[in-house]
Design brief:
The protein is mainly beta. It is about 10% helix and about 30% strand. It has a seven-stranded mixed sheet, with no helix packed on it. Strand 1 and strand 2 form a beta hairpin.
Length: about 450
């Protein structure tokens, strides 16, 4: 028994504050330490199993600042701060194993001190143990605090999901327990905007800045075998004004035979004619003038074919149509290995230098584990070590290749951008990218025998 009789009000009417307590549980006795603001008196109480201490309403109870999360079918979080007790109920934190594309549903409710009200909830996900969280969606609860949580299982791998509640006063944010979801390999049930003619190919040729009359397009075309792989072209396929007439004169004579296996993005020269020649030639399979972006699967990898001509497409920031499209694509699930393609290099040692207009897109790709970025524009070949959005080297960052060596006159390097590993500008050429289930090999093949080259391999993030 305690010093004071359990079940009756403790005789502390003259005590003003502070009073913190723990209730003894049914399995063990606990020492209850309480500091009382009366002449510095410290009182220690020992409670037996199942006992609790009652205090009268003249004592001010000050709960310890804490946050607790309960694992299991019902998770609750206590918001830090005075007299604020916000609870998230119903979130299932049990581990789950599913196939890719499985729709996962849950029902949660949020209340504060027993009162239900509208709240804003964010669903986040990260690859297991990566601690790189990205937003899947943000939604509002009903007036009574209820919300149907629905999301699609990503592709093969181990993932964690969690909920966060916005708009609470005080420090921190109300956050659920993490839920681990293991996704076994399986077919991608998500319908993509376009698919390649040879989506089982593991060989991808990469070349940009190609169609320049009098250039080397005829020579680089000889390095491509249309029966063995597909061609990814990171912009400036035609180097004059990008009209269909220019395409017919300087691009089609050498690269026209690869049309059915070519997956391009527009460069700045395509917009010298508002993209007219580009869309006239390739058609709707590469997007539309209003939405000039798309995705395609090649050899089990997802390629996000994006547009870095930001001033021509209502920007590239988080509020832009392209960003929102990419965000929706990734929220639907991504395979283990992914590539982004656009024209202007995010990082560059060349004449134009690094282009920060695509920073928001790069951050979104990084948060979703993208492996490669393929670019053009600088009329050089350059390979970077994997980099985080702030430019720091990162083992799980995005590796960028600039392959602007398809035919246009080559240029000098003007600096050495941090993270640049290889810089070549002595010969035109094509990069061969060989894809496997969990990694890739690259090999830059120059036109002339004896010219500098670059080759290597790496695994996916």
């Amino acid at each position: 028994m305690s010093c004071w009789e359990v079940g009756r009000s403790a005789p502390i009417s003259g005590m003003k504050r502070k009073f913190g307590f723990l209730r003894a549980d049914a399995y063990s006795s606990r020492m209850l330490k309480t500091s009382v603001g009366v002449a510095g008196i410290a009182v220690a109480l020992v409670l037996g199993p199942g006992e609790s201490l009652a205090v009268n309403d003249r004592a001010e109870v000050m709960p310890q600042v804490s946050e607790s999360i309960s694992m299991g079918t019902t998770s609750s979080s206590v918001k830090s701060g005075k007299k604020t007790h916000t609870v998230l109920r119903g979130w299932n934190s049990d581990r789950l194993s599913v196939v890719p594309g499985k729709r996962i549903k849950d029902r949660v409710r949020i209340d504060t001190r027993g009162k239900k009200r509208k709240r804003t909830v964010i669903l986040q996900r990260a690859r297991a143990k990566s601690n790189k969280w990205s937003q899947v969606w943000q939604r509002r609860t009903s007036q009574r605090g209820g919300l149907n949580v629905k999301f699609t299982a990503p592709f093969a791998g181990s993932w964690e999901f969690r909920l966060q509640v916005k708009g609470l006063k005080g420090k921190g944010a109300l956050q659920s327990a993490n839920r681990r979801i293991s996704i076994s390999p399986g077919a991608d049930p998500t319908k993509q905007p376009t698919r390649p003619a040879r989506d089982d190919s593991t060989l991808v040729y990469v070349a940009g800045d190609i169609g320049f009359c009098g250039g080397a397009a005829d020579k680089t075309a000889k390095l491509i075998d249309r029966d063995k792989g597909v061609l990814v072209a990171p912009g400036d396929l035609e180097q004059s004004n990008g009209t269909i007439k220019d395409y017919r004169k300087c691009y089609i004579p050498h690269y026209g035979k690869f049309k059915k296996i070519t997956y391009p993005v527009p460069g700045n020269h395509e917009y010298f004619s508002a993209g007219s020649g580009y869309f006239d030639y390739f058609g709707s399979r590469v997007g539309t003038p209003e939405a000039p972006w798309y995705s395609v699967d090649i050899g089990g990898w997802r390629f996000y074919m994006l547009n870095s001509n930001c001033s021509q497409i209502s920007g590239c920031g988080v509020d832009s149509p392209q960003y929102k499209w990419l965000e929706e694509q990734m929220a639907a699930g991504v395979p283990q290995c992914t590539v982004a393609v656009w024209h202007h290099p995010r990082w560059s040692s060349g004449m134009y230098g690094s282009d920060a207009q695509t920073d928001a897109l790069y951050r979104l790709l990084y948060a979703n584990g993208t492996d490669l970025l393929l670019t053009g524009h600088e009329h050089v070949y350059e390979r970077f070590a994997p980099k985080a959005p702030d430019g720091a080297l990162s083992t799980d960052g995005i590796r960028q290749f600039t392959v602007a060596t398809g035919g246009m006159t080559l240029r000098d390097f003007y600096s050495k951008e941090p993270g640049s590993q290889v810089r070549l500008n002595d010969d035109h050429g094509v990069m061969e990218l060989r894809l496997s289930a969990a990694g890739y090999d690259w090999d830059f093949r120059p036109v002339k025998s004896g010219s500098q080259t670059d080759a290597g391999s790496s695994s996916c993030n």
